[in-house]
Amino acid sequence: MSEPADFRLRRAVPADLPALVELERATFSYDRMSERQFRRHLHSGSAAVLVAEGEGGLLGSTVLFFRRDTPRARLYSLATAAAARGRGIGAALLAAAEAFARGRGLQTLSLEVRRDNAAAVRLYESRGYRRTAALENYYDDGADAWRYAKSLTNPTP
């Protein structure tokens, strides 16, 4: 997937920490990652933090987790700055996460999403994710979630 010319995708670096924490704070009102958690994930062999960067700084991020001895990856978080929504950043970050996991030889990518997050649900379903479970009271604020999964060996859209 080619990325739009007004932003680029890359691995996050330690200098991104303040912007990552600010994006997390601005995007999520619950279950936020701390600077310490981001720092740990930046240096972990079992995580990848990818960012979309534009002229004004970070426009989005995604956090991907891996487990040793399993063919699955987990998309833990995908955040797009409010001012940057509707520009394809979320879709580009999702495609980058899939490519990263595929590059590690992983076969499946799973994720959880709030049931009331219609835009995210549309994104995941349009990219070939299948709903695999309903999770009651999943988030810290009591919101319900859907679990989705996608095969990376025979990807659709």
Structure write-up:
- The structure is a single chain.
- The protein has 157 residues and is an alpha+beta fold.
- The chain has one domain (7-151): Aminopeptidase, CATH 3.40.630.30.
- The chain is 27% helix and 33% strand.
- The chain contains four helices and seven strands, in the order βααβββαβαββ.
- It has helices spanning 17-27, 35-42, 89-103, 118-126, and strands spanning 7-11, 47-54, 57-66, 72-80, 108-114, 130-135, 145-151.
- It has a seven-stranded mixed beta sheet, sandwiched between helices.
- The longest helix has 15 residues, at 89-103.
- The radius of gyration is 15 Å and the shape is globular.
Shape: globular
Mean pLDDT: 91
CA radius of gyration: 15 Å
N-to-C span: 10 Å
Question: How many β-strand runs?
Answer: 7
Q: Could you give a short account of the major beta sheet?
A: 7 strands, mixed
CATH overall fold name: Aminopeptidase
CATH architecture: 3-Layer(aba) Sandwich
Instruction: List segments where confidence is low: pLDDT < 50 over at least 5 consecutive residues.
Output: none
* Secondary-structure element string: EHHEEEHEHEE
> What percent strand?
25-35%
Short synopsis of the structure:
This protein has 157 residues and is an alpha+beta fold. The chain has helices at residues 17-27, 35-42, 89-103, 118-126, and strands at residues 7-11, 47-54, 57-66, 72-80, 108-114, 130-135, 145-151.
What keyword list fits this structure?
Aminopeptidase; seven-stranded mixed beta sheet; 7 strands
SSE layout and pairings?
Blueprint: E1 7-11, H1 17-27, H2 35-42, E2 47-54, E3 57-66, E4 72-80, H3 89-103, E5 108-114, H4 118-126, E6 130-135, E7 145-151
Parallel strand pairs: 4-5
Antiparallel strand pairs: 1-2, 2-3, 3-4, 5-7, 6-7
